[in-house]
Every structure is written in C-alpha cells, then in structure tokens.
Amino acid sequence: MIMDEFTPLDCLLPTGTQKICLIILNQPLEKDSLHTLWSKALLRACADGAANHLYDITAGQQDSFLPDYISGDFDSITAEVKAFYTEKKCRLIETADQELTDFTKCLAIMVEEIKRQQLQVDTIVTLGGLAGRFDQTMASVETLYHALNMTELPLVVLQGCSLAYLLRPDMRHRLGVNTGLEGEWCSLIPIGGPCKTHTTGLKWNLENQVLQFGKLVSTSNTYEPVAQGDQRKPVTVTTDQPLLWSMGICRDRK
Amino acid sequence: MEGEGQRGYLVSCITDLHSTEMSCTQKICLIILNQPLEKDSLHTLWSKDLGAGYQVSILNCPADGPSEVDDLRLVGFQNIHTWPFARSLSLSVALLRACADGAANHLYDITAGQQDSFLPDYISGDFDSITAEVKAFYTEKKCRLIETADQELTDFTKCLAIMVEEIKRQQLQVDTIVTLGGLAGRFDQTMASVETLYHALNMTELPLVVLQGCSLAYLLRPDMRHRLGVNTGLEGEWCSLIPIGGPCKTHTTGLKWNLENQVLQFGKLVSTSNTYEPVAQGDQRKPVTVTTDQPLLWSMGICRDRK
Predict the structure, then answer these.
(1) Residue A132 distance to chain B (closest CA, Å)
(2) Is B292 on the interface with A (CB under 8 A)?
(3) Is the pLDDT at B78 greater than 80, yes or no?
(4) Cβ contact, residue pair B299, A138, below 8 Å
(5) pLDDT tens, B30-42?
(6) Chain centre distance of CA B48
C-alpha cells in the first residue's frame, strides 16, 4: 500500500519545510496565521469576499499583501476593495458558474496556475471555511471531496483552532503531530458515508472498525500518550473511503 | 405597531403528513451547550412560566396582515414590550431547561444580575468545563447537578438522554427539543452534535433542532414526508440539505433548486446555498417538502431582523 507522510501543521511553523499555496475564504482572518502563511506561499488567492477581510486586516500595509488573483462571482467583494486591488493590478477572475462554490472555483484556478507556472508545491492551504454559515462549512467539505479529483496535492483547511484534511482511501497515511502547534484533540469523521478504518498513534485507535454517523464517529480523540520530553508517534490511518481528519491547533507553542 | 427591543424567535413549525393542522403552540424543552450564547435567543426560548400572569408570546407568521391584532405583553429582559400579533399566534414555552457542563458558565455570565430568573432544571456532564464558582452557585440554588461519567457519549447526548427521561417521568406534552449552541467552535464538536442528532432518532420521537448564530440544523427522518413551514419571518436567505451520513435519495418541493428523486452524496451532489421557491410579493412561501431514504440534515439560515 502506498505510504503518504504528511505533517498537517507544518504550514503554520515558520521553520516548516512545506512549500504552500494559499487560498483565503470569506471569513474573519487570524492575523498571525495570515502572516505566517502569506510569507511562505508561492501563490496567494482570495475567493470573492475574502478580499474584504484581507483588505481590513492588512490596513496600513495592503501593498505588502496583494493577492495573485481574486476569483468568484463578486457578489461579496465591496466596490471599494475591488477597485483597490484592480488598481494594484491583481488579477480579478470572474467565475459565474452557479453549480460550483467560490472555493471550488478558486481551487481550480490555483491548480491550473501551479501547472502553468510549473511550481513545486507540497500543500494547498486554505484559511477560513470551517465557521459561519453551517451550509458553507459543509460546502467546504464538499470542496475537499472534489479536490481529490482535481489535484494530487493535499488540501488543508484552517480556521480558528480547527484544521480539516480529507484522507484519501487505500493509502497508508502517516501524519506528523510534533510541530508543537497541535491542540489537545483530534478526530476522524466519516462525513460521506461509512469508512472501514485502522489507526495507530491515537489514544483510542480503530482496529479495522467501521466509522459511520449513527454508529461510531471518533471525536474528542487525542494522541497516544508518551513519556515526558518524548516525541509523539506519528498517527497512521488507513481507510477504504475518503475520511475527514480534523485536529486542534494551539498557537501557544510549547 | 411594531414591537421594539427584544425580538421573538420561533423554530419553524414542523409537521408531517399525518398532522393536518399546523402546530401553533410550540412547547419546547431547552438544552444549552458549551458555546457563547445569544442573549435574544436565550431569553425568548427560556421564557417565563405562564403562572406568572403574563402571556409569553413568540413571533409567528405575519400572515396576511393583522386581521386580528392582539396586543400581548411580552416579558422582556428588563421592560415589558407590547407586540402585535397576526392571526396565527404562537406560544412557545420552555417546560424544561438544562445545561450541558460548561454551558452553565455561559448562562451564568449572560444572565449577570438576574441569574435567579434563569435557573436551569439540571446541569449534566462530566463537569470538566464548568467552573467551581458557577457550579457552587447553581448548587446553592438547588439546581440538580447530574454527573455523567460515561466517556463513550458526549455531554450533549447524555444531557438529551436525561431530558427525554424527565419528559417521560413528568409526563410532559412537548413538541420540540431545542438546543442552543453546537454548530460552532471546535470542528470535531460540531460533528459530534450532528452525531447526537443521529442518536436522537432512536432516543425520542420528538424533533431535535440545534441553533447557533445564524444557523439551524435538523435531521430529517427517512421514509416520511416532511413539510417544513418557512414563513415565520425569521428565515434567512439560505437553506440546505446535507447527506452527512451517506447517500440519500431525495425528493423536494418548495425550494428554488428542487431535487427530483436524486441522490445527494458528498463528492457527487450536496445542496448548499439553496433557497426558497420565489413567490409573488406579499405572498406566503410554500412549505418545503422533503422525502429521503436515509437520515438527511436540513440546515437553514436564521435572520433575526424580522421583515
């Protein structure tokens, strides 16, 4: 079975090694996360109203935070913000397709750009998408599903103290959880349907058990305890269907 | 005359085909979860005992103008406001109120100055979130504190189990169990709330709705024709059908984008940013009807600036 090694929170480590591209969604932004991710990112994009949040949170230094493009149907971006970034020569890409969300469309353009510019990228990181309107949070998860067919690259979504990452089926995932930014909790959520799951490295592991809403969902899980000063073991996960990994982020780095 | 100050809040009337009358008197039980509370929603859902001599009224359908206007006294937080009502009047009474663990902290804070008027019937959980101060306060006020150490089930599920038992024990006539909180904060806990909605299908016949911020979530049972009233005036712009547990063969009417016996499934088709079938200006929206062969999550926006 193919093994995939991945450290979900490497992207938030200033000393992390992943080369990332950044998508910003229409949600309030955390300044620290934005600055860390922005500085590492090879490409940066806003989905529609995300540009409003970017504009506000970079007040006084917007010139240092110009996205490569802003895409969407432009029903959320304000006229003022749109004019500002247009004048700064950011690409504005109107995507009128009503079937797909702004997030999915923004991701499609990102994937194309990465290919076009032949960039070496490890991870596509998204800020926002896990809070606000409940249907839009679920739509973000749907985009994670679509992403499995759009790109080989891992797509992680971060907002507040939560990270979400959809695990591909039929690979042995090996997740590094020693950045020091991991919060207390982690979880495996069978959002699309039942997942036959096997794990190691968790406090409550799954032994080829089926995760399924109504029967068994792993929430408020945590990492296998280790001796004081020792590194945590990686978390390994195999699943026969796409399975959502979600973990806490604790920015008070230990 | 428009009411001022506190706004009424009402869970949409929920009926199934077997009930031919719209239920306009909602008797609810209230569960509060460990999330920041909206004061308006809390006060409206908490309400006062009818025995106090006041009628507590919650906003309902504006209908076709105030053909029968009753000024009723709405017991507000600090003032008494008058509120005109149209023909279909709705009374919402919380018969029982409970906090799940740290929810008690939020309740204590948001009712500062009048905690005595907002004493829950019980606080349950493993008590790892409630502060010592808050726990002592409610203990001293004789609220029941029920420690539930079961690590397999969440505080929400355990709180619900106790609620269901109490409703039975007291033989209460209840229409809906309403939960405040559960849809924001830690992502795994939001998903755990959805899991509780699944468990609830086997724990009680009563509908369980979860509200936080501008979102409501309600898990639709399979193999029934659901008829959702969406004319309270509190509905936001959006609604959605989310096949969280697995594929759902779905049929709807009353939506802008209906499903015609189509399968909703993550990775293939999920209905988000949907909305209601447009109607002529001044007309009532048609009810939304939904059938599904598996439990299907209905989620809708709440807009508290009543139109």
Answers:
(1) 8
(2) no
(3) no
(4) yes
(5) 999 999 998 988 9
(6) 17
